[in-house]
Amino acid sequence: xxxxxxxxxxxxxxxFTFGGGAAMLSLIQTQVVTRFAWLTEAQxxxxxAISQCTPGPIGINCATYTGxxxxxxxxxxxxxxxxxxxxxxxxxxxxxxxxxxHRTSLFGDIMSGLRPAVAGLIGAAAIILMFRxxxxxxxPRMQIIEENFGDWSSWTILxxxxxASFFFKVNPILLILAGGIAGLLIY
Length: 187
Description:
Blueprint: H1 2-15, H2 21-35, H3 41-53, H4 58-101, H5 105-130, E1 131-136, E2 139-144, H6 146-149, H7 152-166, H8 172-186
Antiparallel strand pairs: 1-2
Helix pairs in contact: 1-2, 1-4, 2-4, 2-5, 3-4, 7-8
């Protein structure tokens, strides 16, 4: 039963995520933390950090780790396979459509709509990692997740990483290593 649940969950995530692993983080978090409670928010944040530091796409790494936590090695295989299967199916369908229609205005219009949607999903993933969002009185209330960004050191590392990446185009691998070293020295 748990294998079917893992497969269905990660298949749907893989099916409805466009833009890569960072864009799927909000969907994964909603399913594995909020809906099924397979992981805590702190565990999910740790998975994201580890997934960024390990080789391979972040979404696949998250699926593999979640599957392992839920159902061991077989669970990690099921979750990973389920996540990538829709991409293979969709990829082959898109390639055939692309070869046939890539010069039409309809194709350009579709791509113009997907770009901002992907940017929105990536932004939502960042907010989910930083804030716990709850509804109070019909209005959303954002509270900083203390385990992730509870002190000035965390905010300083975040700001320095953003500035180094955005303005100075520092290699992401160097930023990850620097963040790890800063965490080791500070905490």
